[in-house]
Amino acid sequence: MNKMKKLMAMLLSCLLVLSLAFPFGPIEVEAANKQISDIAKSNSKYKAAKWAVDKDYMQLYGGNKFQSGTLVMEWQMLQFLAKLDSNYHFNTNNKDMLYEYYSELNIPLYGADNPSKRNANISRGHFARLYAAVNGLDLSEVQAVQYLYMNEITTGTSGKRTFEDYKPTRNINRGDMAVFMYRINQQGKMAIEGLSSAPTGKDNNKITLPTNFIESKDGTVTIPTKPGKNPDDKTTRPDVYKAVKDIKVAKEELTANGLDSSLITINLRDSYGNDISYDESLAFKVTSVAGAKVSETNTSTSGQSTVVYTDGPQLNVYVTAPALTKSVVDTIRFEMVNPTEKYHTYKNQVIEVSMRYVPKAELRITYEVFDPEQTEWNGGTVDPGVKPLPALPQGVVGTTTVPYTPNGIITITDYDEDIKVMTGSKWESYTTSDGKLTQGQVTSKEIQYGNADLKLEGQIISVWLFEQILDYMIEGPKDESSWGGLGNAKVMYTVNNEGRATYDLQGVMSEEDTVPFNSMLHAVIIYLTGKFLPIADQITLAHEESVEVIKAMYDRLGQIDKNLLRKDYADLIGKLEGAVSKIAVLQAGKELQQRPEGMDRYTKVIVNLVAPSGVIITDYKGTVEVSFNGKTRVVSFDTNTKDYNNNTGSRGSAVVYFDDILYGNSQVKARLIDLDPRYDKVFQGLKNTTVTQSVFSNPRFENNLCAVESEVMFVVDHSGSMKVRDAKNYTADKVKQTVKQIGANPSHVYRFSNRSNHEATDTAAIVSGIDSLLSYKNENRSTNIVSALKTAVNNFTTNQYTNKAIVLVTDGYSNSNGLDEVIRMAKEKGIAIHTVSVGSYTTVNEKLLKDISSETKGTYQNISTIENLHGSLQSIITTILCKTPTLNNSCLVGDTIFNRTDVRIEERVTILADVNTGCENVKAVRVVFISPSGDVRYDLPERGSSRFMHRPQLYEFPEFDLYVEVEFQALDESGNVIATKIHNM
Fold first, then answer.
1. Does Isomerase appear among the keywords (predicted)?
2. Are residues 27 and 83 in the same domain?
3. Does residue 81 share a domain with residue 175?
4. Given CA atoms 843, 844, 845, 847 in this order, what sign does their dihedral have?
5. Same structural domain for residues 660 and 785?
6. How many domains does the chain have?
7. First CA to last CA distance, the chain
8. Whether pLDDT at 23 is above 60
9. How many of the other CB atoms lie within 10 Å of CB of 768?
């Protein structure tokens, strides 16, 4: 039975499953006499029962009685399913055949494995699970009952809409079935899939249970810790906690939506109470009892980590809550891997941290920024959503469905590029419908490849390239050629760790294509570029993904390999670069077309309603008020912006464009206005609530004031502590932008932790265009700044006519061993070292970084957050190109000029401001308390170390409770206001 037939069979089954709950004793009654005698027309079930009888889904007993209280057996339900299934060609009275046939669809049937239960009656809970399964959801009974409520198939027995109110243990009767059937029919036809595997409740996380849905429980599940492993019981495990300085958890409670995350930082000592050096890295096995995702970076692409590494004494991990329908208390466990004698107390000891995950409704805000003056740096937080999984391939022999087993070859003989399916066959062992075990070729015309992982010799390729190769192998080349193709193509079928089908083309490349290369990656790049990639004039946006795929392969090569390919295959590498340039031009035109009329630049805000457990509501009918930069719009949740190819949006979004960009950090606010009564209970907590989201727009660099021949080396910290300060890896994009702006030839890029790793050396245009530049790698996490600088200094060219500079970006956690030698080498070669420290000036090793920059005639700057990196790099660009130290223009922005502002009410009022130590033009700080009854002003005296503080008496403030905002003003030596920052009381 092919998939379409199965779909139709299951579609009919949805109506039937509900009508099957009646014995086969009723007597066939002529249509003219189908008047129900035992149900009054005023009865709430009469309309449904009459409909079921008129449609011949149910028959009447003698005397035109419906007998709505009569129960049914499971096998009778299945028999009725078979009678309506046009694809079922066997005897409907054969119970064994019925169960063998329908068990393939994995519908939960108690009689499938236990024949004695085939005559058992069907409970209402059993029906709920079955209804979910025929709709493609594998649910446990509780979630299945909620699924019935969600689809308005039932309202419960008293309208309370709880699990108990549904009466799941009560057997279903003919009257119930008629009502359920009628309601399903009222909703129209349904696309029914069945289940891909035996039912286990694996889709429970897709169904959100309302608060107190189970009346007998509190809705909270606490996962108990093992005996003796209580995270607070330090007295029973003193050895390991003696070596733990402190444990910090950014947020102990997370929203259980699969996205919300929290940083755990553990500061450690060795087993003798000594500090751990920053050039040392220790491995810890980390586990989550509740199955939360643990990773070292907080990015959408960061995967699950089972082993994490310290940056010296500091262990940092991000924990992302799973998507849940109930609150869960979790335990995150850390255990050192193979501790040495220095860490003997860590052996067989576990450090534990407790966290709680709570399902909550959300008003989720994402955004995109379009800036026509720097389109390559536009960005935002829009999540493309999860790529759909393709159906795993299976064939049909007669009436027997045979799943294809992974790790084997499928022979493809045809494909349909419109619906993205292939026709192919695979040798399989299978059992026929009459119970015989046999082997043979099993054919399918419905092998989905549009959302599969597609490869050539192990390298990921695009759908378009995959289709071109299929066509080439099956039909032969399109030009005049003596070779007419093989009539088929071979793919190795596997399933990856996320359950996605993977098809790797085999036997495509001949010896002539591979022998000239030592690396198969080199061969694939040249083969795809030469045989399938069109010339630049013929490139369209349809080739965009294909060009990006080949370019990504090329970018992964080291510089030596690139040079070899450029030398031996200059024409083909030129062809690839021409295609890349053409795509860039086409993308610019596409952005122009898609831009809202009258907007040359914009900030696009996308709002989604998310139910507890993280499921986006796609059919919400209501409006939301969105505010940005002093403007307010009211928009509806009716825009479908889901696009997996362009990585934009989600179904059921509310989208609004603002014709403005605020560079740096700003805020957007959203508030529900018109509510959808269908979701009143789900989103009750969001009523009259304003949600705020930070928006970051990448600032533009200024036009270069000077020009000079330069050689610049970027040395970027990738230690564990730095990744905490730059979890999204903003530095990577900002360095590429800076490389392009300076235009140094050559430009060098290194990343470092405890040792240096070369990323790229080439012209500024090529280095700035490497997509994978400075991407985070899984490597040692400790820090050694001096060693990284030594490597950089030793790798400059000997050209004496270029201005040489190093740009170091780090969080400053490092030792200074060997610093004097590095400074001496840099001074001898005329290399200026510009240092940027990220984080509070009280935590970074300022002395180390200031010594490096001052001794080499470079500049030192400190930024409190990584988003302020732009200002530091702008001043470095001007300093390098003009050969004159330039003030950090981040010191013109209130967010960056103040590391900290605070107003505390004690016996006195303490007013405090810590100024960025790199902002040397700040000579004074003034504070203005803003109130409707009059402002109060103070000049804060400097207390040293860039701290300004004053402690006035409380009585100096009339009506102190009226002060909501405090404005901190930074002043230069002439008393002019440089920048301001608002501090909320």
1. no
2. yes
3. yes
4. negative
5. no
6. 6
7. 69
8. no
9. 22
**220-255 pLDDT, tens per residue?**
434 444 333 443 333 444 445 567 888 999 898 999
The conformation of residue 138, written as its DSSP 8-state character, comes to -
* Contact status, residue 147 vs residue 132, Cβ threshold 8 Å: yes
What are the DSSP calls for 274-335, one per residue?
PBPPTT---EEEEEETT--EEESS-STT----SEEE-BTTEEEEEEEPPB-SSEEEEEEEEE
User: Distance between alpha carbon 877 and the CA centroid of its chain, in Å?
Assistant: 34
Given a cut of 80, whether residue 688 has pLDDT beyond it is yes
> Which domain does 256 fall in, by range?
220-358
- Tell me the three state secondary structure of residue 865: coil
C-alpha to C-alpha distance for 298 and 263, rounded to whole angstroms: 9
* pLDDT in the model for residue 301: 45
> CB-based burial of residue 299 (10 Å sphere; 0-12 exposed, 13-18 middle, 19+ buried)?
middle
DSSP string, 788-840: HHHHHHTTS---TTSEEEEEEEE------TTHHHHHHHHHHTTEEEEEEEES-
Q: Is 623 helix (H, G, I), strand (E, B) or coil?
A: strand
Token pair 């709920």 in the structure block, residue: 128
Residue 477 lies in a domain: yes
Per DSSP, helices labelled H in 231-277 are 238-242
User: Which of 268-272, 603-607, 944-948 shows the lowest mean pLDDT across its residues?
Assistant: 944-948
Are 779 and 875 contained in the same domain? yes
Exposed/middle/buried for residue 901 (C-beta within 10 Å: 0-12, 13-18, 19+) = buried
Angle in degrees, 0-180, between the axes of helices 124-134 and 141-150, rounded to the nearest 10: 70
Q: What are phi and psi of 955, to 5 degrees?
A: -70, -10
- Write out the two tokens for 39: 């149900």
Mean pLDDT of the chain: 80
Q: At what angle do helices 124-134 and 174-186 cross, to 10 degrees?
A: 30
**pLDDT digits over 479-529, tens only?**
766 677 889 999 999 988 667 899 999 999 988 898 888 889 999 999 999
Q: Please report the DSSP string for 494-523 in residue order.
A: EE-TTS-EEEEEES-S-HHHHTT-S-HHHH
Encode pLDDT of 931-946 as tens digits.
Answer: 666 677 889 998 876 7
Task: Please report which confidence band the pLDDT of residue 684 belongs to, taking 50, 70 and 90 as the band edges.
Answer: confident
Task: Decide: residue 798, CB within 10 A, 0-12 exposed, 13-18 middle, 19+ buried.
Answer: exposed
Crossing angle of helices 74-84 and 95-103, in 10° steps, is 70
SS3 percent helix, strand, coil of the chain, rounded to 5, is 30, 30, 40
Q: How many CB atoms lie within 10 A of CB 227?
A: 6
pLDDT, position 530:
93
| Beta strand pairing call for 631-636 and 623-628 | antiparallel
Judgement on whether residues 766 and 791 belong to the same structural domain of the protein:
yes
Answer yes or no: are the C-beta atoms of 61 and 33 closer than 8 Å. Answer: no
Record the tokens describing residue 22, joined without a space: 């009646």
Residue 914, pLDDT score: 85
pLDDT for res 17 = 37
Instruction: For residue 746, say if its preceding peptide bond is cis, omega within 30 degrees of 0.
Output: yes
Whether 639 and 653 have beta carbons less than 8 Å apart is answered as yes
Q: Are residues 927 and 962 in the same domain?
A: yes
Q: Among candidates 141, 195, 137, which has minimal Cα distance to 166?
A: 141
Q: Is residue 41 part of a domain?
A: yes
Identify whether residues 672 and 715 lie together within a single domain. no
As given in the structure block, the two tokens for residue 376 are 């390559």
DSSP 916-972: PTT-TT--EEEEEEE-TT--EEEEEPEEETTEEEE--BGGGSTTGGG--EEEEEEE-
The CATH number of whichever domain residue 974 belongs to comes to 2.60.40.10
pTM for this structure?
A: 0.57
**pLDDT value, residue 92:** 64
Confidence class of residue 705 from pLDDT cuts 50, 70 and 90?
A: confident
Length of the chain in residues, anyone? 985
Question: Is position 210 within any domain?
Answer: no
pLDDT digits (tens, 9 = 90+) for 31-61: 334 788 888 888 888 888 888 788 777 788 8
Place of tokens 């709430």: 44
